[in-house]
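[step 3/7] inverse_fold.run input=structure_tokens len=62
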């Protein structure tokens, strides 16, 4: 997957914050792929998302 350096930096910042909290709670760190999977999973359960200039309603979700 090709991502911009800016996107890579944003993911890196999120990963650092996530893993700091996980360490505080005695959990193992997540790698970059796991962080992206978690972000996608979170988006899947939102009633709507705005991505790439498109507003996407997630029909059938409560």
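[step 3/7] decode complete -> sequence:
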């Amino acid at each position: 997957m090709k991502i911009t350096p800016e996107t890579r930096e944003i993911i890196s910042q999120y990963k650092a914050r996530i893993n700091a909290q996980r360490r505080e709670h005695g959990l193992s760190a997540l790698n970059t792929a796991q962080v992206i999977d978690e972000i996608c999973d979170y988006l899947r359960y939102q009633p709507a998302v705005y991505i790439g200039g498109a507003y996407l309603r997630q029909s059938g979700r409560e």
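[step 4/7] annotate
The beta strands are 48-51, 54-57.
The chain has one domain: 5-57.
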